[in-house]
Amino acid sequence: MTVFNSTTWQILAEQDQLIELTRGQFGLEIEAHRITNDGHFSRHPHPESIAPRAVHPYIQTDYSDTQSELVTEPAGSFTEARQRLAQLQWIFRRALQPNEAIWPLSMPPHLDDTDLNWLDTTFGRPWVQDYRDWLKVKYGPTHEVMTGPHINFSISANLIDALFAAATETDKVAFTNALYFRFAQNFAAHRWLFIYLFGAAPFNFNTTDSRIPNDLPQPVRSIRDSEYGFTNDPDIHLDYDVDLAHSIAVMKQYIKAGQLFSPHEFYGTVRFKGYENEDKLLTNGVKYLELRVLDTDPFNPMGIPRDGLNTIQLLLMQFIVSDRQYTPAELHHYDALAKAVALQHPREPLPAELLGEALTLLEDLREIDGYFNLNRAGDLEVMEDRLLNPSHTLANRLISVAPTAEALHQWAIDQATIRQADFHKATLLDANSLFVAAPLRDLHIAALVHGAKVLSAKDDELILSVGDHREVITTKQELFDLFPELKQD
């Protein structure tokens, strides 16, 4: 059945709101390790030329001080979000020491005893020390330093209004939460597809990760996205079976029983976001979703390719308009299939059942692309090529250039070193294309270095903020003159 016949599509068409499917708020996050040129975790501290992690809104670290986490300001498109991520990566790379580079894989490099000792004894975020200690005991340090990108997405407010106006539901918050929950079910039911298309973690380099069996046959499509990867314990059942209230209630039970430290320890496919206090999600409504299934693309210096994001946006649009309702049994079935796909050899095709679903879904995406003239035909051809030719998936491309764990480890070191050298060769050129034009360019860069929020960036206008202090700037000015509160002692 064509996507144009779905109930949601018809409602939006009747209200002349179909264009809102292309809109919303988009954000990107990516974690990656600082390494030295010999492939070890860097012992250099977090770059001191960048504002401290306690105050910087975009540049953080995670379990390890080497584990940078770059988080973009919400943007009006994935294209803009990716541009913002490129700016943060430029800022971060420029701050690295001469012998440092960025590890290009989701699975961490080999950690010897000196690396593990350093990892256990070095941590620069004391305000979350208790949580880190919990993770160390429960999962082990080697397991906690896997990395990857996350996608943040909020549905257009006008789209929600249009659907709510046609609904019988009278509580808009409850309606919004139900809409986001149904979307999350669709995403979770297609976890297998994201793993197949974007999985890129075929080898484990560390026998010290006790959660990954040493006798696990390798290579696979994605250890990180498998049952042995970045996931909760098997006895933690936080699914998308019922509704948001049920999911939050179950999570609270696990926290109360001492099985989870906090909601931050939920490693599911989708997180419901908007408030630190989970109860406020129920009373005020979900604001956005954090989608957590992609591996870092090792062939793209940014770790997130443009064509992949274009395809993902079409998938998100299809998930919104889909009339498909998933039963708990179906969701559990697709979860089992996703686990199986993650542990397939990279050359194995999708099971016939899933390949058929994927090709049908692809036709929906082509209809959506054609209707809105998004010009994503080339991106969808890449998706189809990977579906029909497993040898063209990211995981198989990796094992083609590096067929063993040892070879892949060396390949990753070489790529990291080459990319950092290339960065230095093109620093000025990249700055001219990444940031706004002079005379506001230096201020734009300074804001991202020193931790001001960049709410809007145009060649003739910057909108910056620090806390409640907001400035609109149209002429060349100094950051610390505008925001003296950013000065560090």
Query: How much β-strand is present in the residues?
Result: 5-15%
Class by helix and strand content? Answer: alpha+beta
Series of H and E elements: HEEEHEHHHEHHHHEHEHHHHHHHHEEEH
Q: How many E-type strands?
A: 10
Helix content: 40-55%
How many helix segments?
A: 19
Largest sheet: 7 strands, antiparallel
**Overall pLDDT metric:** 96
Low-confidence stretches: none
- Principal-axes geometry comes out as globular
Backbone CA Rg: 22 Å
Please give the alpha-carbon distance between the first and last residues: 63 Å
Written description of the protein model:
- With 489 residues, the protein is α+β, with helices and mostly antiparallel strands.
- The protein contains 19 helices and 10 strands.
- The chain has helices at residues 7-14, 78-94, 113-121, 129-139, 141-144, 157-165, 172-189, 191-198, 244-256, 278-284, 306-321, 328-342, 352-372, 377-388, 394-401, 405-425, 427-434, 441-450, 479-482; strands at 24-36, 59-61, 67-71, 100-102, 149-155, 270-273, 288-291, 453-458, 461-466, 469-473.
- Strands 1, 2, 3, 4, 5, 6 and 7 form a 7-stranded antiparallel beta sheet that branches. A 3-stranded antiparallel beta sheet has the order 8-9-10, with helices on one face.
- A hairpin with a 2-residue loop joins β8 (453-458) and β9 (461-466).
- It is globular and about 55 Å long.
